[in-house]
């Protein structure tokens, strides 16, 4: 019985050791992917808009189970509207996340994401109007997600819940973005 307990303890220690990341390591993760974006709040007749996303994260492994990351992402957001109409946002997002490793390869993520609205356009049929001046310059989102690492590839899925409104003036329109990316992790 004593040998079985010792074997079980040794196996648990082996799993625990293999599930640890190198403390103090820094990684760069360039990534690309897509968004399923919409606007929440005072918007009627809107639906999901497909857009591309790309950029990079830098990750610092704070402890065996916690990493801190900051990134820079170019993100196509907005929403589809009734008829042949749509609203497009081009944002420069800065995700700041805490990564909690549940296993060696699987992390849960949460943080804050300031976003700079670089461009806003309203599309109606063949007509396009620049409406950047009617949008806030900076907006804030709450990213919540998960990632899975396979070898040096990082598969990331997150939902960005808009905390501040994107529009100026009356009403309240906030981003609502589901983002999926694939990246490659370089340890430096």
SSE blueprint and pairings:
Elements: H1 2-18, E1 26-41, E2 49-61, E3 66-81, E4 85-93, E5 96-101, E6 106-124, E7 127-130, E8 138-150, E9 153-162, E10 173-184, E11 186-187
Antiparallel strand pairs: 1-2, 1-10, 1-11, 2-3, 3-4, 3-5, 4-6, 5-6, 6-7, 6-8, 8-9, 9-10
Structure description:
With 188 residues, the protein is mostly beta strands. It has one domain: Porin (Beta Barrel), CATH 2.40.160.20. The protein has one helix at residues 2-18; strands spanning 26-41, 49-61, 66-81, 85-93, 96-101, 106-124, 127-130, 138-150, 153-162, 173-184, 186-187. Strands 1, 2, 3, 4, 5, 6, 7, 8, 9, 10 and 11 form an eleven-stranded antiparallel sheet that branches. Strand 8 (138-150) and strand 9 form a beta hairpin. It is elongated and about 70 Å long. It starts with a helix and ends with a strand.
Which residue ranges are poorly predicted, with pLDDT under 50 across at least 5 consecutive positions? 12-19
What is the domain tally? 1
Distance between the termini: 46 Å
Q: Can you tell me the CATH topology? A: Porin
Features:
single chain; 188 residues; mainly beta; Porin; eleven-stranded antiparallel β-sheet; 11 strands; elongated
Brief synopsis:
By secondary structure, the protein is mostly beta strands.
């Amino acid at each position: 019985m004593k040998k079985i307990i010792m074997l079980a303890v040794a196996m648990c220690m082996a799993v625990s050791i293999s599930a640890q990341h190198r403390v103090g390591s820094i990684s760069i993760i360039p990534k690309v992917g897509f968004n399923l974006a919409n606007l929440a709040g005072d918007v009627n007749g809107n639906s999901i808009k497909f857009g591309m996303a790309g950029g990079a994260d830098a990750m610092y492994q704070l402890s065996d189970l916690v990493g801190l990351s900051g990134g820079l992402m170019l993100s196509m957001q907005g929403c589809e509207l009734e008829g042949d109409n749509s609203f497009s946002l081009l944002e420069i997002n800065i995700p700041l996340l805490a990564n909690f490793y549940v296993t060696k390869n699987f992390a849960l993520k949460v943080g804050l994401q300031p976003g700079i609205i670089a461009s806003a356009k309203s599309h109606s049929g063949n007509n396009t109007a620049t409406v950047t001046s009617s949008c806030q310059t900076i907006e804030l989102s709450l990213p919540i997600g998960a990632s899975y690492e396979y070898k040096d590839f990082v598969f990331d899925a997150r939902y960005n819940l808009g905390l501040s409104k994107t529009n100026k003036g009356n009403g309240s329109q906030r981003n609502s973005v589901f983002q999926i990316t694939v990246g490659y992790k370089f340890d430096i």
